[in-house]
Amino acid sequence: MAIEGADIVKAAAFIGAGLAMGFGAIGPGVGEGFAAGKACEAIGKKPEEAGLLTRTMLVGQAVSESTGIYSLVIALLLLFVV
Amino acid sequence: MFTDVATIIKLASFGGAGICIGLGAIGAAVGEGYTAGMANLSISHKPERSGDIMKNMLVGQAVAESAGIFALVIAIVLIFMDASSTNLLTAAALFGAGICMGFGAIGSGIGSGYPGGEACLGLSRQPSVSNRLMTNMLIGSAVCQTPAIFSMVVSLMLIFKNIGDLPLAPTWAALLGAGISTGVAAIGSGMGGGMTAGASCESIARNPETLGRVTTTMLVGQAVSQTPSIFGLLVSFILMFKTFPESSTLSAAMALLGAGICMGFGGIGPGIGNGMTAQGAVKWVSRNIEAAGELMRTMLVGQAVSQSTAIYAMVISLVLVFVV
């Protein structure tokens, strides 16, 4: 099996894309779930503030999501650009 | 170095068996330890209920043990099976099966420990609802076992797959990737489902009248927690059943292996996160039943956002399989 330079580069890009998105998805998943769990607890304590709490939860989750989106962007760059 | 095919297949199946039971033993042991610890704590609160608590502990541990038993079964099959194949692909399939069941047992083992422990604690707090607690514990921990069962299904399919004359490259990477995808993605879903089930046992002991709403919220929350492992199963099935054209390039193989790794690890976080969300919601349904509707809605919105990274991982996996 002859392996050429260009093939190795492409292989590294593909496995790198998989690693980037795979490991990159762990943190945001846990973090956003934690935020949502605490939001549920808070709504249980004070249901009349549900709107405010949901808004805060979504803003917090959006920030937590950012690293997941970085991973996605890097994975797509590795797949289609490099 | 020249080694014949039969030796390499043996190497792969023995190595796979070791990884399978080695990793598979982690989860069940941690989960059972948690249950036993909580049982001790409960007996210290109410020594006169020690018989019931001990019985509940053993039932809870038995369910947690099943994930370890799945791993043991797959390891034994891998050791004693008669792989009279002349195709090197069999080695990849057997090793993939070992990885799949090994990782797949971790989450379910740990997860099933939570409802067992919380049910023991609940028994010391509310002895009058012992039947309902045990029923709820069993339902919750049964759902926690589904990711381990998915892993066992994929392992068995890999072990008994009819390899035929599929091209070695890049199919070896697809079979290995199929094992990693379901196995690793099962970690998150198993743990997430367990956190939810644990919270529901605690909630029923706190406020037995809310049993119906608590169980409903638990089941919905657990169902959403299971989705990352279902994504993992989907990617595994695609990798196992799609026929890939022969290609001796390294990149074709790495794309398929990358797809499995991506979906596998990408499923861990959202599985745990969805479980944490459902844990919070279930806990407060029992404390404030009037807000149950609001809690269910917030839980689902929060879980949907937490799920997004699993969906990204699935998209990248599918791109790796079908596009590049």
SSE inventory with pairings:
The complex is a heterodimer of chains A (82) and B (324).
Chain A: H1 5-24, H2 26-45, H3 50-81
Chain B: H1 5-45, H2 50-80, H3 89-125, H4 130-159, H5 168-206, H6 211-241, H7 250-287, H8 292-323
Give the strand content of chain B. under 5%
Which architecture name of chain A does CATH use?
Up-down Bundle
Radius of gyration of chain B: 21 Å
Question: Would you identify the regions of chain A where 5 or more consecutive residues have pLDDT less than 50?
Answer: none
Largest interface: A-B, 56 and 65 residues
- Summarize the biggest pleated sheet of chain B: none
User: Element order, helices and strands of chain B?
Assistant: HHHHHHHH
What is the CATH class name of chain B? Mainly Alpha
Structural class of chain A: mainly alpha
Shape of chain A: rod-shaped
Write down the CATH class of chain A: Mainly Alpha
CATH architectural arrangement of chain B: Up-down Bundle
Low-confidence stretches of chain B: none
CA(first)-CA(last) distance of chain B:
33 Å
How many discrete structural domains of chain B? 1
Shape of chain B: flat
Assign a percent range to the helix content of chain B: over 70%
Under CATH, the topology of chain A can be stated as: F1FO ATP Synthase
Radius of gyration of chain A: 19 Å
Total strands of chain B: the figure is 0
- Please work out how many helical segments of chain B DSSP would assign: 8
